[in-house]
Structure prediction request, 1259 residues.
Amino acid sequence: KQFTSHKDPMLKKRDDFEDILEERRTSSDLRYALRCYTPVLYKGVTPCKTSVLKSMVLQSDQLHYVINQVSKESGRAADDVREEASAILEEMAHSLQLSTVRFFAFMLSKVFKTLFRSICVNEEGIQRLQQAIQEHPVVLLPSHRSYMDFLLMSYILYTYDVALPVIAAGMDFMGMKFVGEMLRMSGAFFIRRSFGGDKLYWSVFSEYVKTMLKNGYAPVEFFLEGTRSRTSKSLTPKLGLLNIVMDPFLKGEVFDVNVVPVSISYERILEESLYARELLGVPKPKESTSGLFKARKVLSEDYGSIHVYFGQPVSVRSLAEGRVNRCQFNLVPRHIPRRPSEEIQSFVNDSAYRLVRAQEENMVLKPWVLLASLLLQNHHQNRAAGQKPGMALDELTTQAVWLRDVSRQYGAFLHWPDHTSPSEVVSSGLSLHRALVRVCEGRVQLAVEQGVYLFEFLAVVVLSCASYRNQMLHVFVRPALLASAIHIASSNQKQEVFNSFSFLRNMFSSEFILCPGATVQDFEEACYLLVKTGVLQVTQQEVLVTERGHRTLAFLTSMLDPFLQGYQVVCRFLCEEDTETLTEKQFIPAVRKFIVNHLLAGRLRYAEVLSSDLQKNALAALQRLGAVRKIKGYVGFHHPCVPGWLD
Amino acid sequence: MNVLSTCAASACQQAVCRALCSVVTKGNIVGVPVGTHPYHKFEIMKWNGWGYSDSRFLFNKKGQAEFTGKRYRLSGMIIPGLKDWFEGTFGANLQHKTPPTPLLTNTAVPPATLNEAFVEEVKSTGIPFSHDAEDRVFRAHGHCLHEIFALREGKIGRVPDMVVWPSCHNDVVKIVQLACKHNVCLMPYGGGTSVSSALECPPEETRSIVSLDTSQMNRILWIDEKNLTAHVEAGIVGQDLERLLNESGYCTGHEPDSMEFSSLGGWVATRASGMKKNIYGNIEDLVVHIKMVTPQGVIEKSCQGPRMSTGPDIHHFIMGSEGTLGVVTEVTMKIRPMPEYQKYGSVVFPNFEQGVACLREVAKQRCAPASIRLMDNEQFKFGHALKPQVSSIFTSFLDGLKKFYITKFKGFDPNHLCVATLLFEGNREKVLQHEKQVYDIAAKFGGLAAGEDNGQRGYMLTFVIAYLRDLGMDYYVIGESFETSVPWDRVLDICRNVKARIIRECKDKGVQFPPLSTCRVTQTYDAGACVYFYFAFNYRGLSDPVHVYEQVEHAAREEILANGGSLSHHHGVGKLRKEWMRDTISNVGMGMLKSVKDYVDPNNIFGNRNLL
Prediction:
C-alpha cells in the first residue's frame, strides 16, 4: 500500500515546491481577490445553500430517530427537542460566502507578504487533491501548529482554484464576536469542546458533517490532533471526527472517502514564546478580538517561510480492506446510532496513527531545527561540565553538516540549500531566530543574559528551542529508543535490547507518535536504520555498536535524555511527595514546584522538564502502566514500581 | 434455473413456440418414443454457446449487426445501432476477431470411466443411455463465462462418463437404486442453464459420473381444474409447460428469463424466480407438492393441503438443494386461467435515484404490475442500441420527436435518465386502471410515460443478452450477469458501489478499456428488491482474461455482501459461490444442512458438491 512507511527512507520521493507569494508580490492583490473562482466539485455537484443543507440535516433519518428517542426518554415534546436540534445546528453551521473569502484573500495577501518570506506549496499535491475531490468525498487533515493553519489552508486552496473546505473549529473562536462570524463565513463550523453524553448534540454534529461529506458539497477539514501542538510534536490523534467521516464509507453510503494529510511547517512559529509560556503555566489568553489587534506587533517581525505539503490521498476503502468486515452493519438500520464495534474502534485508531505519521513524514525541516538540537544538547552538557557557555560557530557548522547527513539518511525532509555554503546556511538560520540565540565573540549560545540568571526567561528560551528540536523527533524517535534501549539493557543480547526497547516504547507512547501494536515493526525499522547507517551490527542473537557508531548513538540518547529524566523526576515526585490527597488539578503546580527546586539545586539539568505537556504525558504513562491510579479525580500512588534504571 | 436471460417476453413467445413445434428430433436411440426433445441436444443447440444453432448475432459484410434464424421477433432483422454502441462502449473493433474452435474434437474429451456392472444393469432396465463424447460434453457445463470460454477454446475438463435418460418417476427410482448399489456418482441435469458452476464435474471425483438427464420426463400428467393445479413431470422445459397449459386455457405464469431452456425440476432445485412473480409468485409460492427420489427413498407429502403446520416445511429442504439430495421427478403446481389482456409500458425518469424512489413507492402501495424493472442509464443506452431498423420515415420522425421532447423540452440529461419497463396483465379494464395508478405514482417522481415499444424492447434485451454475449466473445469482449437481493434502503448504495467496484477492479487488474458496468432493479418486494448486474469488458492485451474476469466477479460479490446484499436471489450457489455460504447462513445453519445431506445421502451419490 502507498501508505505504509517505506523501508528505506532515503528513497522517499517528494514533490517540489512552488512559492505562491511570489506572484502576490508582483501582481495586484485586489484583482487576485476578485478573480473568477470556479472550483470543480465531487462528480460535478453544484454547491448547496446553507439553508438547504440545514434542512437536509434536520430531516435526516438519523436525527429524526434520535429526536424521538430523546423525546421519549426525557418526556419532552418532540417538537421541543427538534427546536433544540435546530438551535444546535444554527450555532454550529458554517455559512461560506464567497465575498468573505475574497475579503480574506485580499487581507491575508497583505499580511502574509509582511510576515513571511515565502509560502511554498507542492503543486503536484494540489493536482492530486483536485483529482481526488472529483472522484470521491475528500477529508483534509492538516497538521496543527498555529492559529494560522486553517486560514492558510483556505487561502492556498482559493489560490489554486480548489474547492474550499468546511472546517471544524473549536467553539472558543466564537468568543471573538466579529471574527467568529467572519470565520463562519469563510467556511468554519463550530463545535463545543466537550459534549460527552449529549446524544442530541452528537447526532446533529455527526449528521451535519456526514451530509456535507456524502454529497460532496465541500471537502471537510479538521485537525486530527484536536488542538494546536504547543511543543511541535504531533499529538495523539483524536478519533471522534475521524470516526464520523469514515462512517459513510463503512456503511456503504459512499464508494470511498479520500483522506489527504497535509503537513504545514513553519520556519518560525508565530506563537513561539506564547506556547512556551503556556507550557510553563502562564494561562493561555482568552481569544478575543482586541487581543488579536494587540498581536499586531508580530506583524513587524520576520517569520521566514512556510512549507505546505499536500500528501498522497489515502483511500479509506484501501485502509479498511481486509481489516473491517462491513457486513456488521447489515442487521440494524444504518440510521440508528450505535457505538462503533471494537473492530472499528481499533481500525480508526490505527488509521489515525498512520495518518499522523503521514503528516510527520512530509514536514519540512529547516537547518535551524538541526542547530536548535545541537545547541540544546550543548547547553545542557556545558551546564553539567561548568564550561564556557555556547559553542564555537565553526564547531556548530561542522556538527550541523554532520547532522544534516545523518538526518537525510534517516529520511528527514530537510530543506538545506545545497548551493549555499554551510556557514551561510547556519548564520542565516541563527539570524532568523535571534530572539532565541545570539552570537558573541564567535560563540553561539542561547539568548540568556550572561551572568544574570533569569530563570523564567531561560525556561522560555529552552522550551522554544526544544519545540524546534521536537520537529525532528519523528525522524529519530525509533532509532533513539533503540539507542537508549541499548544503553539501559543489561547485555547486548538482542532479546534483552528488545525488551528494553519495548518498555521504553510503551512508556513513551503518549509522548511520541508510536502506532499501537507496532512494537516489532518499530524495532525492526530502528535496527534497519542503525545498521544501514553503520551504527550497529545486528546478528540473530546480538546487537553490537560499531566503532564509528558511538557518535550517532550518543546524539540519539541525548536527544531522548530530557524525556527520560523528566519521567524520572515525575516518578520521584510521586514517591517523595504526599500524594494521598493530590487532585488532578493540583498535580501540575505541585510537580512544577518540585522540578523548579530540583533545577535550582542542580539535581536536574533540563529546564524543558518544566513543560506541563511532558508532565501530563508522564502521568498518563504511569497510569497506563498501572503505577498510578486515578480515584475520582485524585491521583493515587499505586505501588513503587519505578524501574532501577530511572535512578 | 432462471439464468442468463432468454425469452422472457410473451410477445416473442409465440414465435418461439412456432419455431419449436417445427423442430423434429433426430434422436435415434432404439426403443425410445420420439418427442419434441432430442436426446442429442447439440443437433439443434450450440455446443459452445447460448441457445439454438440457427439463432445468433453477427456483423454482416456491411458491418451491420443482424440476428439470424426465424425463431424470434428480432430474427432476420438488421440492428443498425449495435455496431456503434459495441465499438463505443468496449473500444472493440470489428477487425479484431476471436472466433471459437469450430468443431468439438473427440480426442479432446477424456475417455469415459465406466462402472461396468452399473452399465450392465442399466442396460437390462431398458432405460436409454449414451457415452458418446458429444452427449457427455453437452452435459458437463452450464453457462458461466469460464465454462463457455473454455468450450470456445476447445478445452474440455472432467465430463460425465455417461448420460441416462429416464422417462418417468419409476425409471429414476431404478437408476438411483443402481447408483447406490454400484457407488456411482449421479448429477441431475435439467435444462443446463446454470450460472453457478453447478454442472461442473468435481475434478476430485474418482467414481464414474452419470448425468441424469430429465428431458424425457416432460409430460403434464393431469390438470385439476377444480383446485387449479397441474401435476407435471419435472423435466419439462418452461416454454413447453406454458404452451401445453395454454392449449387448455391455463398458464403457470412462471417465466424466468431462461424459460426457453430451463426445466421445472431445475427451478425447484435452485429456488427460481419468474419475471411475473408479482402476480403468480416465485417457485416456492407456486409449488403445491413435490416428489423427489433420494438414496434413502422417495420423499413427498401425503396430501395437497394449501398450507400446513407440520413442522418445518420439507419442501424447503428440497427447494434450493441444487441436486445434492436427489432428483425431483414430479411436481404439482398452481395454474391460472390465461390472462385476457397484456400491456407493456415504460416510464422515463430524470435519474436512477428518482426511479428507485418510484419503485419503492409502488412496492409500498403493493400495486406492482406483473413486472416492473428499472434500468440504469447504461442499460437504457444498451437497450436503445438494440432497436431494429425502422421501416418508415414516419416512425423515425416520431422517435426523433420523442427524444427531443424528453431531453430538450423536459430537460432530462441523456446521460442520467433511466427507464422503467412495465408489463400489466389481467382483464382489460383492470389493466387500464392499474396502469393509470402506476403512471400516477411515477409522475410524482418525475417519471414520464414513454410508450409500449420501449417497454417491450426492454424485455427483449433480457432474452437476447445471452446471444449477445456470444457475439461479444467473437470480438474480445467477455461478460456475465449476476444478481442479489437487498433491503430498500440499500438499493441505491449497492448499485453505485458494486458498479464502481467493478470499474475499479478492472482498472487494477490491467483491463485496458473501461468496462460495461450496469444494473437494473428487476424485482420488487415489500422489504427490498432484486438487483441484476451486467458486467463486460474488452480483454485485448490480457494474457489470462478469464482469471481477471473471475477476480473482478469475486470482488463484486464481496462488495455486494459488504453492502447488505444477499449471496443470491435466484441463480443459486452452486460451486461458484460456495465459499460464502458459511458466512451467509451461520455455522449452525451449515450444520443443519449438512446433517440433512448426511442422512439423505450418506454415500454422496448425488455428488455434484454444490452448495455445501
Summary: Residues 1-35 of chain B have pLDDT under 50 and may be disordered. Chain B touches chain A through 13 residues (CB under 8 Å). Chain B has 19 helices and 21 strands. The longest strand of chain B covers residues 477-487.
